[in-house]
Amino acid sequence: MRYFTPDLFVRLQNCRDQQVFLDANQAWERAVESYGAQLEEIRPDMPEGLRQLTDLGSLHDASVLSAWQGRTRLTVVLHPELEASRLVVLTYHLVDPPYIDRTAIPDEYRSSHTLWLYDEIGLERETVFDVTARVQFRSEDPAATGSRRESRARVFTHDILLSNGWEMRLRFHYLEVSRPTGLIPPAPGNPSPSTSTLPQSA
């Protein structure tokens, strides 16, 4: 289930119509409460890196400094809004290529400086991923239980809305989180580069 959607986010920006704004705000608060309960429910199934990410709290308005995609991994570098030099580096071990909707929000709500607006983590309880063979199974499929236990992994999802209008939908089995210190922090107000495709690496 998706608790947050680009449509709900856009409705929250409508301050001209008070009733639309109030209704959207109530819907958002209900989504926050329901999503929080879901996170607690799936937390025991999360790999360590994903638990680290949830412990960081909200990344709302963090600057997206860079993102690049390898054959089986996607890395995103963030600069949290209230931290002078500490960065957040997220490396997803992907189950399949990321899906990116580049028109998730209308032009009038986009910005040239790409910010992290919201995100939502989920667990696909019905899916098992064989990391060695890079094959997905339904949980009830005999092949899923037949694969080696050490190569089996749960499949998680991460939906991310960015202020450049992109919605990224990731399916992954493992996440690495690091908090390096930036030696050359980005200048205040300096827009991050925004491209229509993710750079590819080996």
Major sheet: size, sense and barrel closure? 6 strands, antiparallel, barrel
Strand tally, please? 8
Shape: globular
What structural class is derived from the secondary structure elements?
Answer: alpha+beta
Q: Detail the poorly predicted runs.
A: 191-197
Topology, pairings included?
Blueprint: H1 6-12, H2 18-42, H3 48-55, E1 62-69, E2 73-79, E3 88-94, E4 99-101, E5 115-130, E6 135-138, H4 142-146, E7 152-162, E8 167-178
Antiparallel strand pairs: 1-2, 1-5, 2-3, 3-8, 4-8, 5-6, 5-7, 7-8
Helix pairs in contact: 1-2
Task: Name the features.
34% strand, globular, 6-stranded antiparallel barrel, 202 residues, alpha+beta
Would you kindly provide a brief summary of this structure?
By secondary structure, the chain is α+β, with helices and mostly antiparallel strands.
